[in-house]
Amino acid sequence: MLPAYRNKKIELSNDAFILSPFDNLNVFRHRLRDFFDFDYQIECFVPEPKRKYGYFSLPVLIGDRFVARMDSKAGRKEKTLIIHNLHFEPVRLTKPEIARLTDAIQTFAAFNQCREIVFKKSNKKEYLKAIKAGL
User: Is the residue at 69 inside a domain?
Assistant: First the structure.
């Protein structure tokens, strides 16, 4: 470690990010497992019967924790973001974290030129209810 960074305090923003499977953070899967205890694989290359989370599930990061995986598709013609599966990891989310995740989903929808968001499936109904209420 460089001496200038030895006593440097690092503060995380605790923002929520929906990451691309090709983000530098996700490319080295063994690092995700070792550092974050998060086993991630893009499933578009996995035969459909063996997929757990969806065709193109995206990792969701809040602060320094991977909290969910979001499999979605932007229907640009209909201007609708369809979230096929919002699968939460076995972590407890606070109300502020759910609010940040809601904002990230809205930002993701806007980036994909979508005005409506439709949820098909989630493993945490209480989180999904809170997200829908925040939209």
Answer: yes
pTM for this structure? 0.88
Strand partners, 80: 75, 116
* Coil, strand or helix at 87: strand
Degrees, nearest 5: CA angle 9-11-12: 150
Q: Does residue 2 belong to any structural domain of this protein?
A: no
Does residue 6 lie in a domain region? Answer: no
Count: domains in the chain: 1
Q: Which residues of the chain have pLDDT under 70?
A: 1
41 closest CA partner among 102, 15, 73, 50: 50
- CATH number of the domain bearing residue 80: 3.40.630
Question: Residue 57: phi, psi to the nearest 5?
Answer: -70, 140
- Residue 113 Ramachandran class (φ > 0 left, ψ -120 to 50 alpha, else beta): left
